[in-house]
Specification:
By secondary structure, the chain is an alpha+beta fold. It has a domain of 87 residues: OB fold (Dihydrolipoamide Acetyltransferase, E2P), CATH 2.40.50. It is built from two helices and six strands. The chain has a five-stranded mixed barrel. A hairpin with a 5-residue loop joins strand 2 and strand 3. The termini are far apart.
């Protein structure tokens, strides 16, 4: 009888904790929501995957060295609702991209907006502009 109660209690506890853990995983706590960084570079790779997509952009620094920045976005289903397809960012595509940088200073950010060299705008996070 005690074993049955324990299993029932454990199951109840897990059902309460699971959404909290999932919410923590999907929080943006590692990003500086009050700051933005805008960089220009060339797409190295677009990882259009679940649970998060990553747009890797090679940015040339003032000294001529190159830093690969990672811009995190949602998975493909959410990206499609925002009219962002894998084919929009093939390697070599020139892009100006904005996002909320990592708090720890690593070259990564939460992707908010990107503009290709041809002028097409892609909004990965935040309000969708009218007419988008």
């Amino acid at each position: 009888m005690n074993k049955i109660r324990f299993v029932a209690l454990l199951g109840a506890a897990l059902s309460v904790l699971a959404p909290i853990v999932a919410g923590a995983h999907h929080s943006g706590v590692m990003f500086e929501e009050e700051k933005e960084v805008t960089l220009e570079g060339v797409v190295k790779e677009f990882q259009y995957t679940n649970p998060h997509s990553w747009l890797l952009v090679d940015v040339t620094n003032p000294d001529g060295s190159v830093t690969t920045w990672g811009f995190e976005a949602e998975g493909p289903s959410t990206m499609m609702t925002r009219k962002i397809r894998r084919s929009d960012f093939t390697p070599g595509t020139k892009v100006k991209i904005t996002g909320h940088p990592m708090k720890d200073g690593r070259p990564a950010a939460a992707w908010t907006r990107a503009v290709r060299a041809d002028g097409k705008v892609f909004v990965a996070r935040g309000p969708i502009p009218e007419g988008y």
